[in-house]
Request: fold
Amino acid sequence: MKKVIVGVLFVSFMLLAVGFFTSAQTNSTELNNTLQNDSSVTEDDSTLINENDTTVEDSGDLESKFDEGISEWAYDYIYNFIKKMNISEDDVISVSLVDFDNLPESVNLGSIGDDSNLAIYEVAFNKDGEVKKVYVVTYSLDKVDSQDDIFPTSKRQFLNFGFSGKVVNSVFLKTSTEVETSLEKGYVMMRDGSITAISTNLKIFKEDKGDVEIIIYINGEPVGFGNLLSAESEGVKKDYDVISEDTVTFNAGDVVSVYLKTQVGVSLEDVTTLVEITTK
Reply:
C-alpha cells in the first residue's frame, strides 16, 4: 500500500552563474548585469567596449601565458572559453587573476551580490593589432569546500530499525547495532532536517483482525507519520510512505526512535523498517 502525503514541497534551484565581460582602460562602463552561462556566444556578442589601439606581437604556448597559481580547473574552463570566443591561442597575451581590491573601473559587481566565491580572470589578447581584454567571471572552486557550496543540495540518509524473531506484543524496534530504542533512546540527529519516507517489511504468521502500526517518535513524541500493515491474513507484508520535505522536521540533537504497535492476538516476525531523513 503506497500513500503519498503531500506537504509543502520546496524545490530549490540555483543556477551556476558564469559570465564574460570586456573592458577598456579608458572607458568606464558598468559590467553587464547578467552573468551568462551560455558558452556558445561569439566574440561580437561579448564586445561591450573597445580597447586602446596598441599593437602587440603574436606568441604561442597558451599555458605559459597564464599567471602562476591559476588552478587546473580554472585553466581548463578559460581555455574552453577562449576557444568558444574564437580567440586564437597565438593572439592571447596573458591570463591573470583579478584582485578584488583593485578591480578595473569598468568592472562593477554591485548587481551580482555576494562575491565571496567569485573569481575574475582577465584575458588580454590581440585583435587586428589592438589589445582587447575579456573578463571571465565564474565561481572559484579554490574558494569553496565542495560543489555543494555552489549547488546547495539535500542529502538523504537512512536509519535502520528492525526486530529479528517473533513479536507477540507491541515493542520498540532495535537499531542496526541491535540496541532496542525507547522514548529516550535512538538515533541522535547531527543536523537539522526532515523525515521524508519510511518503509517496512514483516511476516504475519498468526493473523487476527486489526493492523500493525509502525510509529516514528522524535524526542519521545509521535510525529503522526508511519506505516500501517494489515494483519488479517498470514504472509509477508510490506508498506512504504513518503512525505514532502520540511513537513516532519527535526533539529540537531533530536532523538529518533520507532515503535511497533500490534493488536492482541497478532503474531509476527522479522521486522525491517527503514526511515529516510533529508538534511541540507
